[in-house]
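Quick entry, no commentary yet.
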Amino acid sequence: MPRDHIQFVTGRLAEHSLRQIAEPLAREIGFDYAIDVLSITVAALMTPDWVARRIKLAPGATRILVPGYCTGDLTPIEQAVGIPVERGPRDLRGLPDFFGREPAPPDFGSYDIEIIAEINHCPRLALAYILAEARQLAADGADVIDVGCEPDGPWTGVAETVRALRDVGHRVSVDSLDPREIEPAVRAGAELVLSVNSSNRAAARDWGCEVVVVPDDPRTLAGLDETVDQLAAAGVRLRIDPVLEPIGFGFAGSLGRYLKVRERYPDAEIMMGIGNLTELTDADSAAVNVILLGSCQELGIRSVLTTQVINWARSSVRECDLGRRLVYHSIRHRVLPKHLEPRLVMLRDPAVTQPSGDELERLAHEIKDANYRVFVAGGEVHVVSSSLYLHDADPFILFEQLRQSGPDNGLPKNLDAAHAFYLGYEMCKAATAMTLAKQYTQDEALDWGFLTQPETRHYLKPQRHDEHKD
């Protein structure tokens, strides 16, 4: 097959950096390239119509790559050159990732672990609130909505709540040991009961639904075998939960019990209540959920029960939905669970690229306009503009330097209230990125995985007329 020949389109300021990145990329990946420097200082100000009027097709080019900030329909450029046109990354430093990252496997996204999401303390909640909460949990990936009861029952409103959830299409389980609550819940449509042990197993024979069997004493598994045997003999469908204990209260031993139960019951359905760890550990829940789901996938545990009560676990259902797909693919295909689901990497980024001091110094000499560019590099926040280069680890000190950088140590002419607000916002993002070792790109949202809130570009000014002249 002929080699790919990529024509990079850029502006004058980015030419030097683009050449430094494109040369080793072309050598490593194996493509030919040409760099088309159009008559504009800032490449981000290009529009497809503007590029289409000025681009000249390089001999042998097989596709065009325009900057990521060149937004809008690329058809005018394709019509002008007659070959495919693509939009690259907004930041040149993202080109290696743009070319080098393997796409997600075509079958990625499958799973076989069911998520049961509990709404705690339902007797205390209004029905409208329960329905709204269930709707959000289902949207986040919950397969079953668990109606959490309280130990001082029975709750007389359980049937109404289950029926209302069923009427809007939810699958429902009920979390109670009290037959006086369980029986009306089952009649109203609950398909699963959490939980059954020696205290209520006799009544469970008549419910006509699946149940979760728990031991009378989790530490010794006392009573588990007897309950399993009696319910199996009565034809009751069941799954087993040996009970996950919090750290400091037998966590490691409880993991061992899941191994023991799997060995004892190789074909049984098993459930793990992972909320016992995420809700009761001072740690962000996403990684904890993934580790527990990985254990479940390896042991053939096909259902998990989770909650979203404490603030650090408020997105557990969504985390579990992404995590179950990650561990399923990893174990099914015997590959590491790495570079497959970037939305679960939230606190820190997979990789960070930063400009060098020399690049920033050069940029300050080449920039002709008075707009401010903000960067993070070497543990400091940097501000670059025309003939201006300031940097400090403390944004307050940096802003004071900027404030005094005008003629005769006065306020720069363009540092009005709007600019000050904008720079303060961007410096705050930059300082956050610096603290957490995240990628900072001016006027773009920090990457918080699936929690990222997109931002609208604000900082670029309308270009002067002479910037658009050939």
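second:
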Amino acid sequence: MSPFCDGLTRRDALRVGTAALFGSAVGLPRLLQAADTAPGKDVSLIFVFLHGGLSTIDTLDMKPDAPAEFRGEFHPAKTKVPGMDLCDLLPKLGHQADKFSLVRSFRHHNSDHGPADHYILTGYFPQAGFNPNLTPNNQRPAVGSVISRKLGPTGSVPAYVALPKMHPSGGPAYLGAAHAPFVIDADPNAPNFSVPDLVPPPVIAADRLDDRRRLLDTVDRFHRSAEARANRSAGAVGTFREKAFDLMTSRATKQAFDIHSEPDAVRDAYGRTSLGQSCLMARRLVEAGVRCVTVDHSNYDTHDGNFATLKNALLPGFDAAISSLFRDLADRGRLDSTLVVVTGEFGRTPRINKNAGRDHWGPSFTVLLGGGGLKGGRVVGRSDPRAERPATDPYGPEDLFVTAYTQLGIDPHTEFHTPDGRPVALVNNGKLIAELV
């Protein structure tokens, strides 16, 4: 994977992987024990993060009447929804336009990858001391961690899954490791794709799994007395450790992560790309009961050769993956119960640079979202004639999170408490995107 413009290859940072959660004697049990299972609406979230920043002026909010140095090389095309033109390189997405809406008056005040990433994945702009080079680097919990804390898991699957890797701002912050994502840390498009530790290969004999159980029992004996002295409820840890082992051997879990069981025609429709197969995996996971799936897909940081990169590398896979996700969810009766958000951390500069590229641009871009009870086929707001600024009342990350949490049955006005007892609101103000509800 090519590095971003800051020279970093973000997936090379330290990650929270599957082995860290499932290989630990207490990691998953603690996760299960700490889950808050407060009831909510039966709606899941698939958050597709276009890492690097999709050029929405070339895709979702085109400006064909702008001067050449702004409008770019592509052309708008009509879609299934009158008035919602998209780039002509997105014909499949255009056929699904009635299933999603576009917020074209979206904006925020930062155009740097790290802080903007944190802002769009948490709803909070980072404060002084934020270090974008750490993983995790959360000052505030990511959306999946909030959902995990408020809604908890259903059945034997984790509440929050990140694929194909964990974004550095995808962590739980003060909510603790119990609400970190379960990280697949593998590309679902790989021919030999599997989920290490969670789904043991078929060649592993049952006696080896029994050996693993005996090893955990041995570890228990060293920990039990100390934990009992420190915490009167420590006896419950054994229950959650047993549940962790059951999760590893759960048929439902194996089925959820077994993308190879999908018909070839379905996998082909999503596209044999990392984004396509990650979106298909996300659909499988929400069907299995996962509350939130984040898909971190790179690299949309098109400073050089923006148009060639979009045309030849990014948009064909994007068109297949996102259109198939909406169509598939609708066909399977899951669209109303699955909210899908598709966005980068920002857009790209309206003015084309000297390298036929576009640079970072937070002041105006478009967010695509649908399902989860939201109205489809809507265009909310508009940008100015050159997509430099919103021309109508703008929406931002806080508003996106108020809307998402509301659809998920989570009151966005409630508070968490940090370990030192300080109250922190789920969302830093914000308003509902009323045109969609």
